[in-house]
Design a protein that fits this description.
The protein is α/β, with parallel strands linked by helices. It has twelve helices and eleven strands.
Length: 313
C-alpha cells in the first residue's frame, strides 16, 4: 500500500506528519505550504492508496481549484485533510476533512488512533506545545508523563527546527525519527541545533532592542534576519505594544514577508491581515493571535500605515 503525506514544516506540522507516518509506515513525506499545495497535488504521478494533508491552511485564491482537485483524487485515493486554520468557506462538508480549533498533531492522533501506539500521544503533545496546547485532551495526556520532561523535549524540538530552517531533508529525518517515538534529544544533531538556535534568539532579542519602531497600535522591526515569529514577539514586548510585527525582505521576489504576533488585547490578526493585505497587492491570514502576510516591497510603508489604523479601530 502506497501513501503520501503533505505537511507544514513547523513543529506542529512535523509532529502531525510523524503521527501520520506512524500510521502509514510506507509513506513518502513532502513539506509544503498553502500557496504551493495545489501545485503539489496537480503534479502527483501514480496512484496512492492514502493521501494525508496536515497543518496546511487553505489558500483563498486557489480554494476553488483545490476543491476540484481534491474531489478528483478522492475517486481513487483515501484522503485525510487535517487543519485548524480559519477557513475561507465556513461549510466544507467532506468526511475526510477534519477541521477543529486544536493543533493538527492532536487531530492526527485522534484521527489515526486505532493505527497507533499509545506512546505516540507524546508526539502529539510536542506538536500541541509548539502550536496550541491548552486543550482538555492534551492536558489529560500530559498527566501520563513528567511534564517537565515533555517541555524539555518539546523545547528541544521547537528550537532545533528553528535552526534547521528550510533544510527539508533534515526535517524529514526528524519526522521519521519522531514517527518511531524517538525522544527529540536522541535525534542526531537536534540538541546541538537547539543550542545554536537559543544562542541566536538571545542575539535577536538584543537586535530588536536597537531596531524596534513603535507606532500607535503596534511595534515592528525590519530585517532581523531569521526567526521572524520570535522577532515579532520581542518587538511587541520591547516596544510595549499589544501587537508585534517582523518584516523580512525577500530580494529574489521583491516582497516583504510579515510575521504578526498578538501580545495583549483582542485584535483578530487573521481577519485584519486578510482584509488589509489585498489592498496592497499582498496576501495575509493565519490565526487570531498569530498570522502572516506577504507584501510587495513598494507597498510596505502604506501597508504598515493602514495596518496601524485598522488595529486602532
Amino acid at each position: 500500500m502506497s501513501s503520501i503525506i503533505f505537511t507544514h514544516g513547523d513543529c506542529d506540522g512535523i509532529c502531525a506528519g510523524a503521527i501520520a507516518k506512524s500510521a502509514f509506515s510506507d509513506s513518502t513525506v513532502f513539506f509544503t505550504n498553502p500557496v504551493n499545495l495545489l501545485g503539489e497535488l496537480n503534479n502527483l504521478t501514480g496512484n496512492y492508496n492514502n493521501i494525508v494533508i496536515c497543518d496546511i491552511a487553505i489558500d483563498e485564491k486557489t480554494f476553488p481549484q483545490l476543491k476540484i482537485r481534491l474531489n478528483e483524487l478522492e475517486a481513487e485515493s483515501n484522503i485525510t485533510y487535517m487543519d485548524h486554520h480559519p477557513l475561507p468557506e465556513k461549510k466544507y462538508n467532506k468526511s475526510w476533512f477534519h477541521h477543529d480549533d486544536y493543533s493538527s498533531s492532536e487531530q492526527a492522533y485522534r484521527t489515526f488512533e486505532n493505527k497507533l501506539s499509545r506512546d505516540m500521544r507524546r508526539v502529539a503533545i510536542y506538536g500541541a506545545i509548539g502550536d496550541f496546547s491548552e486543550t482538555p485532551l492534551i492536558k489529560k495526556w500530559e498527566k501520563d508523563w513528567d511534564t517537565r520532561t515533555l517541555y524539555f523535549y518539546s523545547g528541544t524540538l521547537i528550537q532545533g527546527i528553528a535552526h534547521v530552517g528550510r533544510d527539508y531533508d533534515t526535517k524529514r529525518r526528524i519526522l521519521d525519527a519522531l514517527s518511531e517515538d524517538i525522544p527529540p534529544p536522541e535525534i542526531a544533531g537536534l540538541l546541538e541545533s537547539a543550542v545554536i538556535a537559543s544562542r541566536k534568539e538571545e542575539e535577536i532579542k538584543e537586535d530588536v532592542k536597537h531596531k524596534v519602531v513603535k507606532l500607535r497600535n503596534f511595534a515592528y522591526v525590519r530585517n532581523i534576519n531569521g526567526y521572524m515569529s520570535k522577532a515579532a514577539i520581542y518587538a511587541a514586548s520591547i516596544g510595549n505594544a499589544n501587537v508585534g510585527i517582523s518584516c523580512e525582505y525577500r530580494p529574489h521576489k521583491h516582497v516583504y514577508d510579515i510575521s504578526a504576533r498578538r501580545r495583549n488585547g483582542g485584535a483578530d490578526l487573521n481577519t485584519i491581515l486578510r482584509r488589509v493585505a489585498p489592498n496592497h497587492g499582498g496576501t495575509g491570514g493565519g490565526h487570531p493571535f498569530a498570522a502572516g502576510a506577504r507584501i510587495p516591497e513598494k507597498d510596505l510603508e502604506a501597508f504598515l500605515h493602514d495596518l496601524d489604523d485598522e488595529l486602532g479601530t
